[in-house]
Sequence to fold (689 residues):
Amino acid sequence: MWYPEWPLRRPDAPRDEPTQVIDDGGIVVAANAPARASGIVPGMRRAEAELRDPTVVTLVRDPGREAILFEPVVAAIEELVPRVEVVGPGTALVPIGGAVGYHGGEARLLERLDEELERVAGPGALLGVASGAFCARRAAERAEPGVPFVVEDDAAFLASLDVGVIGVDALADTFRWLGVTTLGALAALPRDAIVARFGREGLEAHRLASGATPKVVPRPLPEDRAVVVRFDPPLDDAERAAFAGRAAASRLLDRLAAEGVAPHVVEIEIEAGDGSVRRRTWRSLDPFDVAVLTERLRWQLRAWIEGGGRGVRGGIVALGLRPDELSDAGRQLDLFEGTRGDERRALGAVQTIVGPDRLLQALPDGGRDPHERVRWHRWGEPPPRPRRDLDAPWPGRIPDPPPALVPSTAVPLEVEWDAGIPTRVRLGSRWEPVHAWAGPWRRVGRWWDGEPTSDRYQLVTSVGALLCKVEEGRWFLLGLYD
Amino acid sequence: MREWAEQGAPTVGEILRIPPGGVAALVGPHGSGLTALGISLLAESSSGTVVVVDGRGWFSPETAWRAGIAPERLVVVRRLGAEEVPRVVAALVDGIGQVYVELPTRLDPTALRRLAARIRARRSRALFRSTSALPSGVATLTIEAVDVVWEGVGRGYGRLRRRRTTVRARGKAMGGTARTLELEDDGANGLRVVSGVAAAATGRAAG
Fold:
């Protein structure tokens, strides 16, 4: 169930003039019919939208107020179908599976739902029906007011959609660049290949594309995962309640993180001073983190306290948070201990662009040549053990300082000799005279493995110093002291 | 490790300060010591993750470890095509405070300016290592290699021991005056400022 124009439902929004609502980042999140007529669509930048229609009225989004207004709608849906999950103000997931039989068929239920929504919140609701949450949301985008969009086969419906709907821009761009433009094309790719190239985000995208609901890994957990906080005296002010909520949220998520899981669904429950209990379930496609959960909690508490006339009689005496649909996404976190959240996200975004094999970390390793003394491993994977002994003496090791630039394979080099003395070296298109040199340092290779004997030289030119190797009369560049 | 720092001499990072949102250009041929200089500037300025974007894949992490960046703080993006570099850097600066980029030789000036604007908006610090001057308006600090002299090597004997690099720094971050610095590097103790030769102010004095 989706109200695309929900952010516009506020008393200060003009009715007939073109109006847009933007979020904190200056991106249009909703536009009314006159605004849309002049070409403004959600997702556009504010400046671009104002270029299309300079008369447009711009309002800044206030999700807290939106949530308050949305509360009666959720309550109304709950009269028909229990256990509604709120995704955000204006969007809710209604599990109709069980209610269909009770109301006498899917069509009848949808009709009643539509009537009820129109009575409470007026027209404008879009209903999409599908087996999975992601698919239902996409179906709602296709629906028309009053005409629900029913998806019979999730996979077939998703196949026709653009890859942009997976919601990760960097990933979608890379898919497009690779010629994978629809979810169908993405779902047709072998899952193993996607995981190898794009890691976890790729796997998530592939799951969405194949119409599988975000899979939840069942893990044995101790039963008592809910966090309950009691307040004495009771809280009757939304801001104080939200503050208390933040502490509860971080306690809940910390406790879950210790077990290596994170929730996709959290049920918020409060007990009022008069003994009444209220519950609301919130869902997030990504596992909740403290910031997101706190924000949802603040919206919900404000909606209960300030909205709907009744308020919370006697204040809030207890607040409970019950996690559900735990996924093991949280388990990854331990690997990146020491990396801050935004750093991790940025590196994750880069990993989706370049793949796991080009985003690397390194550890010291034992060896003689500069390239042997470094061991690379993929970012985000547990570091490997050194191949060779770090503390061994390594006779014949190239002395410090190490070269700053080391080609991964030795690069052939042209050097001129005169009576056993290197005189000139070719760098790019120029020949540079050799001012000084050190070497040869003879290295007897593992002759039993067929490795030839070679010499190391350090050459100094007017543009810098080079580390070179001479093997069977040919010169190679091993490093550049930059 | 840095005993000279205690003697009160200004460190390289104090003289060549990259403000948040600033781009420093390191301009000079490979071999002039600018990689070591750039890495030690990043090592001094923060304790967060340092990311090196190295299209060619030649950057050696040993230099960073010597400069004081622990292995777990260093991430390297290697072997990128020239067209991938701006995209990768743009994604990085969303969350990474210090980025070192080995610029591909041919890069569209518009893409570079756009990147600099993004770095400014995200308040990250970036170092662009380039063999040729960057288009105007990209760098807040330009460090050019002037000279490099190695000590310890003769005609067939010794080994590379110490490098003296002369660089000229100019740009907005230097407050409008150009400065020539002489730096010394023995690969073990980090970079040391030998002399901060005060240079002539830019522009001409009248009268």
About this structure: Residues 53 and 101 of chain B are 5 Å apart (CA to CA). Confidence is low (pLDDT under 50) at residues 1-6, 200-207 of chain B. The longest strand of chain B covers residues 141-153. The domain at 3-144 of chain B is CATH 3.40.50.300 (Rossmann fold).
